[in-house]
Amino acid sequence: MYKFILFIHIISAILSIGPFIVLFPVLNRMIGKSGDVLDSLIEIFQATIRIVKHAGHVLVVSGILLMWQGNWPWLTSWVIMTIVVMFSSIVFLAKAFKPKIRQFYAGTINSTVLIQKLRFSVWQYIFILLIMLWFMVAKPNIW
Ligand code: HEM
């Protein structure tokens, strides 16, 4: 059972990070586009965010199950560090994508600014996820 949960946990980690890499070519294709073409590229962007969001929820739930099934103490330093990074980035993740797309459709920002902001957010998101991935894989004993 433990191995099965670990498998689910790792699959959800892959699905939490992997789809975001695809967003770079999508962002490149958005440059200079408008109307229906731009709308459909933004839709791909939003669909990707949706997949990653669901995978992130599975990641957390399977992580909690691993702690329980594996009798890992909750004070384990690499687990606490992952949770700290996760909570401190939740505020960022909530504001990273949707509000920017909304600003674009409201006319507050143009497509060039939208693409720049989204690209920066994708890098930030990948960076945060890679920090957590490192804590999980290296399991450093910080204290
Ligand atoms: C609430 C948050 C989380 C908890 C409680 C949690 C818990 C755990 C536990 C207990 C293990 C150890 C399994 C073992 O080695 O037997 C583990 C492994 C793993 N976790 Fe997490 N996790 C969380 C979030 C994450 C996140 C955000 C990622 C990726 C970004 C991630 C990726 C991994 C990976 C790849 C492994 C396998 C590492 C290995 O077997 O060496 N986890 N997780």
Q: Can you put this structure into words, describing what you see?
A:
The structure is a single chain. The chain is an all-alpha fold and 143 residues long. It has one domain (2-138). It contains five helices and no strands. Helix 1 packs antiparallel against helix 2 (35-69), helix 1 packs antiparallel against helix 5 and helix 3 (77-96) runs antiparallel to helix 5 (111-138). The protein binds protoporphyrin IX containing FE. Residues 6, 9-10, 13, 16, 59-60, 63-64, 66-67, 70, 72, 79, 82-83, 129, 132-133, 136-137 line the site of protoporphyrin IX containing FE.
Q: TL;DR?
A:
By secondary structure, the protein is mostly helical. The protein is built from five helices and no strands. Helix 1 runs antiparallel to helix 2 (35-69).
Sequence stretches where pLDDT stays below 50 over 5 or more residues? none
- Which class do the helix and strand fractions yield? mainly alpha
Number of domains: 1
Shape: elongated
Give the terminus-to-terminus CA distance. 30 Å
Task: Reconstruct the topology from this structure.
Blueprint: H1 2-30, H2 35-69, H3 77-96, H4 98-106, H5 111-138
The site of protoporphyrin IX containing FE (HEM) has 21 residues, from helix 1, helix 2, helix 3 and helix 5.
Keywords:
0% strand, binds protoporphyrin IX containing FE, 143 residues, elongated, mainly alpha, single chain, 85% helix
